[in-house]
Specification:
Mean pLDDT: 91
Radius of gyration: 15 Å
Structural class: alpha+beta
Shape: elongated
CATH architecture: 2-Layer Sandwich
Largest sheet: 5 strands, antiparallel
CATH class: Alpha Beta
Distance between the termini: 27 Å
Low-confidence stretches: none
C-alpha cells in the first residue's frame, strides 16, 4: 500500500509463547475508495506487517465509505488473531482497540 493511501496505522507488540524476542506488528488501513462503475460499493485496503515476514494483504467492502472503513477495522482485528493465539499481543495494555464483529 502506498503511504499516501494510508489513513490509519497501529503498532502492536507481539511476545511469542516460545520465549522468542518480542517484535512489532504494524497494521495499516487505507483510504476508502469506490471502484469505477460500481455504485454503492466502497473498498478499503488492509495490510499487516511483522519483521521478516511477508505482509498480509486484504480488503473490506461496504455500501458506503463509512461502512467499508468500519468493516476494515473489524477484519484487521480478525487478521491479527494468529498473533494473539501464538503469544501475547498488546497495544495499550491487552485491549488492542479493534471493534468486534456485529
Amino acid at each position: 500500500m502506498h503511504d499516501d493511501n494510508v489513513i490509519a496505522s497501529r503498532h502492536l507488540t507481539f511476545a511469542p509463547n516460545d520465549g522468542g524476542v518480542p517484535r512489532k506488528v504494524h497494521v495499516l488501513i487505507g483510504k476508502p475508495h469506490s471502484p469505477i462503475h460500481r455504485d454503492n460499493e466502497w473498498v478499503v485496503e488492509i495490510e499487516i506487517h511483522e519483521s521478516f515476514k511477508q505482509a498480509i494483504h486484504a480488503t473490506a467492502s461496504g455500501a458506503d465509505s463509512f461502512q467499508a472503513l468500519y468493516l476494515a477495522m473489524v477484519k484487521a482485528g480478525e487478521l491479527i488473531k494468529p498473533w494473539s493465539d501464538g503469544g501475547e499481543l498488546t497495544w495499550d495494555g491487552p485491549n488492542l482497540g479493534f471493534p468486534s464483529p456485529l
